[in-house]
Amino acid sequence: MELRQLQYFVKVARKQHVTQAAEEMHVAQSAVSRQIHQLEEELGVQLFVQKGRNLQLTSVGKLFLCRVEGILTDLERAVNEIHEYLDPEKGEIRVGFPHSLGIYLLPTLIASFRKHYPNVTFRLRQGTYNSLIRDVMKGEIDLAFISPFPEKHSHVTGDLLLQEELYAIVPQGHDLAESKTIRLEQLKEDSFVMFSEEYSLRSIVLEACGKAGFVPRIGFEGEETDTIRGLVAAGMGVSLLPEMALTEISVLQPVKVRVVEPQVTRSVGMIQRSGEKLPLVAEVFRKFLLDFMATKYRKGESSE
Fold first, then answer.
1. What is the spatial distance between Cα 262 and Cα 245, in angstroms, rounded to a whole number?
2. Predicted pLDDT at 303
3. Contact (CB, 8 A) for 39 and 1
Protein backbone atom coordinates (compact mmCIF):
# COMPACT_ATOMS: atom_id res chain seq x y z
CA MET A 1 0.00 0.00 0.00
CA GLU A 2 1.46 3.33 -1.07
CA LEU A 3 0.95 6.86 0.27
CA ARG A 4 -0.06 7.99 -3.20
CA GLN A 5 -2.88 5.45 -3.28
CA LEU A 6 -4.26 6.78 0.00
CA GLN A 7 -4.05 10.38 -1.22
CA TYR A 8 -5.86 9.50 -4.45
CA PHE A 9 -8.50 7.56 -2.52
CA VAL A 10 -9.26 10.51 -0.21
CA LYS A 11 -9.46 12.96 -3.09
CA VAL A 12 -11.85 10.75 -5.10
CA ALA A 13 -13.96 10.17 -1.98
CA ARG A 14 -14.30 13.90 -1.44
CA LYS A 15 -14.98 14.81 -5.06
CA GLN A 16 -17.08 11.68 -5.76
CA HIS A 17 -15.67 11.78 -9.26
CA VAL A 18 -12.42 10.39 -10.72
CA THR A 19 -12.07 13.01 -13.46
CA GLN A 20 -12.55 15.94 -11.09
CA ALA A 21 -10.13 14.42 -8.59
CA ALA A 22 -7.52 13.89 -11.30
CA GLU A 23 -7.88 17.45 -12.56
CA GLU A 24 -7.46 18.88 -9.07
CA MET A 25 -4.33 16.81 -8.49
CA HIS A 26 -2.99 17.53 -12.00
CA VAL A 27 -2.58 13.86 -12.92
CA ALA A 28 -4.09 11.62 -15.58
CA GLN A 29 -7.50 10.12 -14.91
CA SER A 30 -6.18 6.68 -15.83
CA ALA A 31 -3.48 6.96 -13.17
CA VAL A 32 -6.06 7.70 -10.48
CA SER A 33 -8.33 4.87 -11.61
CA ARG A 34 -5.42 2.44 -11.67
CA GLN A 35 -4.26 3.35 -8.16
CA ILE A 36 -7.80 3.02 -6.76
CA HIS A 37 -8.19 -0.36 -8.44
CA GLN A 38 -4.87 -1.57 -7.03
CA LEU A 39 -5.85 -0.39 -3.57
CA GLU A 40 -9.15 -2.27 -3.73
CA GLU A 41 -7.36 -5.43 -4.90
CA GLU A 42 -4.86 -5.20 -2.07
CA LEU A 43 -7.59 -4.69 0.52
CA GLY A 44 -9.89 -7.28 -1.04
CA VAL A 45 -12.92 -4.99 -0.84
CA GLN A 46 -14.86 -2.60 -3.05
CA LEU A 47 -14.41 0.98 -1.86
CA PHE A 48 -16.69 2.72 -4.38
CA VAL A 49 -19.89 2.03 -6.29
CA GLN A 50 -21.02 3.87 -9.40
CA LYS A 51 -24.15 5.99 -9.00
CA GLY A 52 -24.98 7.88 -12.16
CA ARG A 53 -21.93 9.91 -13.12
CA ASN A 54 -20.60 9.95 -9.59
CA LEU A 55 -18.86 7.49 -7.32
CA GLN A 56 -20.17 6.78 -3.84
CA LEU A 57 -18.31 5.15 -0.97
CA THR A 58 -19.43 1.72 0.13
CA SER A 59 -19.97 1.16 3.85
CA VAL A 60 -16.46 -0.27 4.18
CA GLY A 61 -15.17 2.60 2.06
CA LYS A 62 -16.62 5.11 4.54
CA LEU A 63 -14.92 3.27 7.41
CA PHE A 64 -11.61 3.23 5.54
CA LEU A 65 -11.91 6.95 4.66
CA CYS A 66 -12.29 7.89 8.33
CA ARG A 67 -9.06 6.08 9.23
CA VAL A 68 -7.09 7.23 6.21
CA GLU A 69 -7.97 10.90 6.76
CA GLY A 70 -6.63 10.60 10.29
CA ILE A 71 -3.42 8.97 9.06
CA LEU A 72 -2.79 11.65 6.42
CA THR A 73 -3.54 14.43 8.91
CA ASP A 74 -1.07 12.95 11.41
CA LEU A 75 1.54 12.58 8.68
CA GLU A 76 1.10 16.21 7.63
CA ARG A 77 1.44 17.32 11.24
CA ALA A 78 4.60 15.26 11.63
CA VAL A 79 6.19 16.88 8.58
CA ASN A 80 5.20 20.34 9.84
CA GLU A 81 6.68 19.59 13.27
CA ILE A 82 10.01 18.68 11.69
CA HIS A 83 10.03 21.94 9.73
CA GLU A 84 9.17 23.88 12.87
CA TYR A 85 11.94 22.13 14.81
CA LEU A 86 14.43 23.27 12.18
CA ASP A 87 13.01 26.80 12.18
CA PRO A 88 10.41 27.65 14.89
CA GLU A 89 9.51 30.91 13.17
CA LYS A 90 8.72 29.28 9.87
CA GLY A 91 5.78 27.02 9.15
CA GLU A 92 2.11 26.87 8.23
CA ILE A 93 -0.85 27.62 10.48
CA ARG A 94 -4.26 26.20 9.55
CA VAL A 95 -7.01 28.55 10.71
CA GLY A 96 -10.78 28.34 10.36
CA PHE A 97 -13.15 31.29 10.61
CA PRO A 98 -16.76 32.36 10.01
CA HIS A 99 -17.39 34.93 7.29
CA SER A 100 -18.31 37.68 9.73
CA LEU A 101 -14.85 37.52 11.35
CA GLY A 102 -13.04 37.34 8.03
CA ILE A 103 -14.00 40.87 7.04
CA TYR A 104 -11.93 42.78 9.60
CA LEU A 105 -10.58 40.79 12.57
CA LEU A 106 -8.77 37.95 10.80
CA PRO A 107 -6.99 40.07 8.15
CA THR A 108 -5.93 42.57 10.84
CA LEU A 109 -4.52 39.83 13.05
CA ILE A 110 -2.63 38.07 10.27
CA ALA A 111 -1.16 41.31 8.97
CA SER A 112 0.04 42.24 12.46
CA PHE A 113 1.42 38.75 13.12
CA ARG A 114 3.35 38.62 9.85
CA LYS A 115 5.15 41.84 10.71
CA HIS A 116 6.86 39.83 13.46
CA TYR A 117 6.92 36.42 11.73
CA PRO A 118 7.16 37.10 7.97
CA ASN A 119 8.08 33.51 7.08
CA VAL A 120 4.92 31.97 8.51
CA THR A 121 2.18 31.04 6.04
CA PHE A 122 -1.53 30.52 6.66
CA ARG A 123 -3.99 28.04 5.26
CA LEU A 124 -7.46 29.48 5.79
CA ARG A 125 -10.82 27.71 5.78
CA GLN A 126 -14.17 29.50 6.04
CA GLY A 127 -17.03 27.64 7.66
CA THR A 128 -20.16 27.66 9.79
CA TYR A 129 -20.25 27.11 13.56
CA ASN A 130 -20.74 23.34 13.34
CA SER A 131 -18.31 22.79 10.47
CA LEU A 132 -15.54 24.70 12.26
CA ILE A 133 -15.92 22.60 15.40
CA ARG A 134 -15.94 19.45 13.27
CA ASP A 135 -12.78 20.48 11.39
CA VAL A 136 -10.95 21.19 14.66
CA MET A 137 -12.03 17.84 16.11
CA LYS A 138 -10.84 16.00 12.98
CA GLY A 139 -7.48 17.80 13.07
CA GLU A 140 -8.01 19.41 9.67
CA ILE A 141 -7.34 22.86 11.13
CA ASP A 142 -5.21 23.86 14.12
CA LEU A 143 -7.28 26.76 15.39
CA ALA A 144 -10.66 28.26 14.62
CA PHE A 145 -12.24 31.61 15.35
CA ILE A 146 -15.80 30.90 16.39
CA SER A 147 -18.97 32.62 17.56
CA PRO A 148 -20.65 32.00 19.89
CA PHE A 149 -17.75 30.66 21.96
CA PRO A 150 -18.56 27.15 23.26
CA GLU A 151 -18.01 27.48 27.02
CA LYS A 152 -18.26 23.74 27.58
CA HIS A 153 -17.46 21.15 24.92
CA SER A 154 -16.06 17.66 25.37
CA HIS A 155 -13.80 17.76 22.29
CA VAL A 156 -12.63 21.36 21.89
CA THR A 157 -11.24 23.96 24.24
CA GLY A 158 -10.03 27.51 23.81
CA ASP A 159 -10.08 31.14 24.84
CA LEU A 160 -12.85 33.71 24.95
CA LEU A 161 -11.62 36.75 23.03
CA LEU A 162 -14.38 39.35 23.33
CA GLN A 163 -18.06 40.15 23.57
CA GLU A 164 -19.16 42.02 20.45
CA GLU A 165 -22.23 44.22 20.15
CA LEU A 166 -24.79 43.64 17.40
CA TYR A 167 -26.41 46.68 15.78
CA ALA A 168 -29.73 47.04 14.06
CA ILE A 169 -29.35 47.94 10.39
CA VAL A 170 -32.14 49.62 8.44
CA PRO A 171 -32.42 51.12 4.93
CA GLN A 172 -31.75 54.78 4.27
CA GLY A 173 -35.05 56.61 4.73
CA HIS A 174 -36.42 54.14 7.29
CA ASP A 175 -38.51 55.71 10.06
CA LEU A 176 -35.78 54.82 12.60
CA ALA A 177 -32.77 55.70 10.45
CA GLU A 178 -32.23 59.01 12.27
CA SER A 179 -32.47 57.45 15.74
CA LYS A 180 -29.37 57.18 17.94
CA THR A 181 -30.78 54.19 19.84
CA ILE A 182 -33.86 51.99 19.51
CA ARG A 183 -35.67 49.26 21.37
CA LEU A 184 -35.70 46.05 19.35
CA GLU A 185 -39.50 45.81 19.62
CA GLN A 186 -39.68 48.91 17.40
CA LEU A 187 -38.74 46.64 14.47
CA LYS A 188 -41.43 44.03 15.11
CA GLU A 189 -43.56 45.19 12.14
CA ASP A 190 -40.60 45.10 9.73
CA SER A 191 -39.54 42.22 7.51
CA PHE A 192 -36.19 40.76 8.59
CA VAL A 193 -33.29 39.76 6.37
CA MET A 194 -31.94 36.71 8.21
CA PHE A 195 -29.02 34.33 8.01
CA SER A 196 -29.73 30.75 6.91
CA GLU A 197 -30.45 28.17 9.62
CA GLU A 198 -26.90 26.75 9.82
CA TYR A 199 -25.44 30.12 10.87
CA SER A 200 -25.17 30.96 14.57
CA LEU A 201 -26.06 34.64 14.06
CA ARG A 202 -29.57 33.56 13.12
CA SER A 203 -30.19 31.98 16.54
CA ILE A 204 -28.74 35.07 18.28
CA VAL A 205 -31.16 37.35 16.41
CA LEU A 206 -34.12 35.05 17.01
CA GLU A 207 -33.34 34.87 20.73
CA ALA A 208 -33.03 38.66 20.97
CA CYS A 209 -36.37 39.15 19.20
CA GLY A 210 -37.93 36.65 21.58
CA LYS A 211 -36.70 38.67 24.55
CA ALA A 212 -38.23 41.74 22.93
CA GLY A 213 -41.58 39.94 22.80
CA PHE A 214 -42.01 39.08 19.11
CA VAL A 215 -41.15 36.54 16.44
CA PRO A 216 -39.51 38.23 13.46
CA ARG A 217 -41.16 37.97 10.07
CA ILE A 218 -38.44 36.67 7.74
CA GLY A 219 -38.58 38.10 4.23
CA PHE A 220 -35.18 37.11 2.86
CA GLU A 221 -32.30 34.85 3.86
CA GLY A 222 -28.58 35.04 3.10
CA GLU A 223 -25.35 33.27 3.92
CA GLU A 224 -22.87 36.15 4.19
CA THR A 225 -22.85 39.47 5.97
CA ASP A 226 -22.25 41.31 2.68
CA THR A 227 -25.48 39.83 1.31
CA ILE A 228 -27.43 40.79 4.43
CA ARG A 229 -26.10 44.35 4.32
CA GLY A 230 -26.84 44.71 0.62
CA LEU A 231 -30.41 43.45 0.90
CA VAL A 232 -31.14 45.77 3.83
CA ALA A 233 -29.59 48.74 2.04
CA ALA A 234 -31.75 47.92 -1.00
CA GLY A 235 -34.88 48.23 1.14
CA MET A 236 -35.66 44.52 1.47
CA GLY A 237 -35.99 44.62 5.26
CA VAL A 238 -34.01 45.13 8.47
CA SER A 239 -31.52 42.99 10.34
CA LEU A 240 -28.95 42.77 13.15
CA LEU A 241 -25.23 42.48 12.43
CA PRO A 242 -22.04 42.43 14.51
CA GLU A 243 -20.07 45.67 14.67
CA MET A 244 -17.08 44.15 12.83
CA ALA A 245 -19.30 43.23 9.89
CA LEU A 246 -20.20 46.90 9.41
CA THR A 247 -16.72 48.36 9.02
CA GLU A 248 -16.65 48.33 5.22
CA ILE A 249 -18.18 51.16 3.24
CA SER A 250 -20.03 50.09 0.10
CA VAL A 251 -22.19 51.72 -2.55
CA LEU A 252 -25.34 50.28 -0.97
CA GLN A 253 -24.92 51.23 2.67
CA PRO A 254 -27.54 50.56 5.38
CA VAL A 255 -27.87 52.72 8.48
CA LYS A 256 -26.69 51.16 11.75
CA VAL A 257 -28.49 51.96 14.99
CA ARG A 258 -27.57 50.86 18.52
CA VAL A 259 -30.08 48.54 20.19
CA VAL A 260 -30.49 49.28 23.90
CA GLU A 261 -33.39 47.04 24.86
CA PRO A 262 -32.37 44.30 24.93
CA GLN A 263 -28.68 44.86 24.25
CA VAL A 264 -27.62 42.18 21.77
CA THR A 265 -24.10 40.73 21.88
CA ARG A 266 -22.23 37.66 20.73
CA SER A 267 -19.18 35.96 22.23
CA VAL A 268 -16.14 35.47 20.00
CA GLY A 269 -13.44 32.92 20.79
CA MET A 270 -10.63 30.77 19.46
CA ILE A 271 -10.80 26.99 19.79
CA GLN A 272 -8.42 24.04 19.43
CA ARG A 273 -8.68 20.30 19.94
CA SER A 274 -8.91 19.25 23.61
CA GLY A 275 -6.05 17.32 25.18
CA GLU A 276 -3.59 17.96 22.36
CA LYS A 277 -0.66 20.34 22.05
CA LEU A 278 -0.74 22.77 19.17
CA PRO A 279 2.06 22.76 16.58
CA LEU A 280 4.75 25.14 17.79
CA VAL A 281 4.06 27.84 15.19
CA ALA A 282 0.29 27.67 15.88
CA GLU A 283 0.96 28.10 19.61
CA VAL A 284 3.06 31.18 18.83
CA PHE A 285 0.11 32.59 16.88
CA ARG A 286 -2.34 31.75 19.69
CA LYS A 287 -0.25 33.64 22.26
CA PHE A 288 0.17 36.56 19.87
CA LEU A 289 -3.60 36.61 19.37
CA LEU A 290 -4.32 36.74 23.10
CA ASP A 291 -1.86 39.60 23.61
CA PHE A 292 -3.30 41.44 20.60
CA MET A 293 -6.88 41.14 21.84
CA ALA A 294 -5.94 42.12 25.39
CA THR A 295 -4.26 45.34 24.28
CA LYS A 296 -6.69 46.33 21.51
CA TYR A 297 -10.22 45.16 22.32
CA ARG A 298 -10.34 44.65 26.06
CA LYS A 299 -9.27 48.23 26.57
CA GLY A 300 -12.42 49.34 24.84
CA GLU A 301 -11.10 50.16 21.39
CA SER A 302 -13.68 50.06 18.62
CA SER A 303 -13.14 47.93 15.54
CA GLU A 304 -13.90 50.97 13.40
1. 20
2. 43
3. yes
Average pLDDT over residues 179-202: 95
Phi, psi of 50, deg, nearest 5: -80, 130
d(CA 185, CA 182): 8
Q: Is the pTM of this model over 0.85?
A: no
From the centroid of its chain, how far is CA 90? 24
CB 10 within 8 A of CB 47: no
pLDDT by residue (tens digit) across 59-71? 998 999 988 988 8
Q: What is the pLDDT of residue 64?
A: 92
Crossing angle of the two packed helices 59-86 and 3-15, in degrees rounded to 10: 120
DSSP string, the chain: --HHHHHHHHHHHHHT-HHHHHHHHTS-HHHHHHHHHHHHHHHTS--EEEETTEEEE-HHHHHHHHHHHHHHHHHHHHHHHHHHHH-TT-EEEEEEE-HHHHTTHHHHHHHHHHHH-TTEEEEEEE--HHHHHHHHHTTS-SEEEESS--SS-SSEEEEEEEEEEEEEEE-TT-TTTT-SEEEGGGGTTSEEEEE-TTSHHHHHHHHHHHHTT---EEEEEESSHHHHHHHHHTTS-BEEEEGGGG-S--SS-PEEEEEEET--EEEEEEEEETT-PPPHHHHHHHHHHHHHHHHHTTTT----
Section 65-82 average pLDDT: 83
Distance CA 105, CA 107 (A): 6
Q: Please, which residues bridge with residue 257 across strands?
A: 168
Provide the 10 A C-beta neighbour count for residue 3. Answer: 10
- Average pLDDT over the chain, rounded to whole? 89
